[in-house]
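Notebook, bench 3.
Goal today: get a predicted structure for ATP phosphoribosyltransferase from Neopusillimonas maritima so we can plan the truncation constructs. The sequence was checked against the plasmid map this morning, with no discrepancies at the termini. Length recorded as 226 residues. Pasting the sequence as submitted so the record is complete.
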Amino acid sequence: MSPATANVQAPLTLALSKGRIFEETLPLLEAAGIQVSENPESSRKLILPTSDPGLRLIIVRASDVPTYVQYGAADFGIAGKDVLFEHAAQHPGGLYQPIDLNIAKCRLCVAVREGFDYEAAVGQGSRLRVATKYVQAAREHFARKGVYVDLIKLYGSMELAPLVGLADAIVDLVSTGGTLRANHLMEVEEIAHISSRLIVNQASLKTRAQALQPLIDAFAKATADK
């Protein structure tokens, strides 16, 4: 019997986002004896059953995972450190983060168009325009450097901003750097290493510990064994 079967009538809910986090979570679930038969990339379903009747998945936007968990719509979830940092700025202290799962690894970086003299720009103390989805992380990074910035929030196609004059620099996630190079941008500064973490609703941890703790332990063991 899988560890989540303790409460069949009220299954535990795990919040995940599509894409890399979903794909890299599957082996962790399998290590806990749980299979997911449907892929959200090919299915329109937003609630996915698993081989364990005591656990279901909900598929939400990556930036919404912490909200679903914090407000109890999901008992636990998996979200990137980048998303959690932005969420915590608006909702401090609302989530328990027991495990860094070391999946979906990347870097949060500053990038500029090729030929832009970034060192001179920040050295002069001039004001930079920075486009990013990660406003809080960018604000704190440049504040530590003593650089004044005008932050422009974008939700996608970040690489376009320096090319059309919207911004001098961007702050974005970088994995291989291929997208930057294809758009004639270059990475000039690394802000943080990013990986995804298991996050848990604090009320669920207290009221559903018998069902939830074995799954947390299984994730921890699978991560340690990688």
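The mean pLDDT is 91. Residues 106-194 form a domain with the D-Maltodextrin-Binding Protein; domain 2 fold (CATH 3.40.190.10).
Flagging this for group meeting.
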